[in-house]
């Protein structure tokens, strides 16, 4: 009886072992079958070489127009381009996202555009900003006649622009240059505003979003170190600056006013890139008292890491045209801010203005 039970157990173990082996063999066979099938499909139908229009490439990729939206900027791809795409599609190490990025690179000449501001332009009529340099791509927003836009270069009939903190591409023929000798001076991606270079009365870009985000990161770091600041002034329109100037003029006269207050159209605040910082727990009364605070000292030594420069340093009054202001900072981007900070120069000195 005992031998019979032992034989049954051995038989059951043998059956289980054989089933596991069969299951493993089936799994391996299934994987090999699917792999070969997919490779066959790629080489024969869905991903075959094609030198026709972008629409055909779209179809070959499965008809997902959103995924291949970047392809629509050119009606045709060169044969060499198609071969390169097909080669990558047939490489098992590449996935579809890599290929879509490759086709995007082929259709958009990003080297013709820049991450730095090139100039300020103006819309000659109602115009549309698109997500990519193509009228077939998604619409980001519309800009009215006479609107000012930041331009980041042009290529193949499109200009890369920013308007109301939204970036995209617009037909170049709908734009005209707004810059003249003393207005909208742009140097190394920076919109220069000082005693000499100004802005027109109708230029109202609002607060720059990138600058505001950088401020928030800087403020968080200061909070971690037991310091706290707030913004007491950011974007200021031409009209607002005129009110400030007139009020100061009435209080202290023209000579003193010009030491501390910009003429309307010559305030950095109108660019949307300038900020006045102050103690968060203090009432707003701008005095030299801020100079001796830990917050002011931290900003002087660290704000550049977040893209801000102290715009009117001590001892540079004859260069900037303004008294030292420990609270006034200008956003220029982290890379440029570090260069200017390391030089110890003002914007005017650094760029020879």
UniProtKB/TrEMBL annotation:
Entries under SUPFAM superfamilies matching the protein: Hedgehog/DD-peptidase
Keywords: Carboxypeptidase, Hydrolase, Protease
CDD domains: LD-carboxypeptidase
One GO process term, biological-process aspect: proteolysis
Highest taxon in the source lineage: Bacteria
Domain D-alanyl-D-alanine carboxypeptidase-like core intervals: 208-333
Pfam families: SH3_3, VanY
GO molecular function (one): carboxypeptidase activity
UniProt-listed InterPro entries: DD-CPase-like, SH3-like_bac-type, VanY-like_core_dom, VanY/YodJ_core_dom, Zn_M74/Hedgehog-like
Residues of the SH3b domain: 128-176
Name listed for the protein in its UniProt record: D-alanyl-D-alanine carboxypeptidase family protein
Organism: Citroniella saccharovorans
Highest classification ranks of the organism: Bacteria, Bacillati, Bacillota, Tissierellia, Tissierellales
């Amino acid at each position: 009886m005992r031998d019979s039970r032992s034989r049954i157990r051995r038989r059951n173990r043998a059956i289980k072992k054989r089933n596991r082996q069969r299951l493993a063999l089936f799994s391996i066979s299934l994987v090999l079958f699917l792999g070969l099938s997919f490779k066959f499909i790629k080489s024969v139908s869905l991903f075959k070489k094609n030198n026709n229009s972008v629409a055909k490439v779209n179809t070959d990729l499965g008809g997902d127009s959103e995924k291949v939206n970047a392809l629509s900027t050119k009606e045709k791809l060169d044969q060499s381009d198609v071969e390169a795409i097909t080669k990558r599609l047939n490489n098992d190490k590449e996935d579809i996202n890599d290929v879509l990025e490759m086709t995007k690179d082929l259709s958009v000449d990003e080297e013709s555009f820049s991450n730095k501001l090139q100039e300020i332009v103006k819309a000659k009529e109602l115009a549309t900003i698109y997500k990519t340099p193509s009228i077939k791509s998604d619409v980001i927003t519309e800009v009215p006649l006479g609107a000012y836009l930041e331009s980041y270069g042009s290529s193949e009939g499109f200009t890369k622009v920013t308007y109301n903190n939204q970036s995209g591409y617009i037909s170049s023929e709908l734009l005209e240059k707004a810059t003249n000798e003393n207005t909208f001076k742009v140097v190394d991606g920076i919109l220069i505003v000082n005693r000499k270079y100004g802005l027109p009365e109708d230029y109202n870009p609002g607060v720059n979003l990138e600058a505001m985000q950088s401020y928030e990161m800087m403020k968080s770091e200061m909070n971690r170190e037991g310091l706290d600041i707030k913004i007491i002034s950011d974007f200021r329109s031409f009209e607002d600056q005129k009110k400030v100037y007139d009020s100061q003029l009435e209080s202290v006269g023209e000579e003193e006013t010009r030491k501390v207050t910009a003429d309307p159209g010559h305030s950095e605040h109108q660019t949307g890139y300038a900020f006045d910082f102050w103690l968060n727990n203090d009432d707003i009364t701008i005095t030299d008292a801020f100079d001796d605070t830990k917050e002011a000292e931290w900003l002087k030594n660290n704000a550049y890491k977040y893209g801000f420069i102290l715009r009117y340093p001590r001892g540079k009054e004859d260069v900037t045209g303004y008294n030292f202001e420990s609270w006034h900072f200008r956003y220029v981007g982290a890379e440029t801010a570090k260069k200017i900070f390391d030089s110890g120069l003002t914007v005017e000195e650094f760029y020879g203005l």
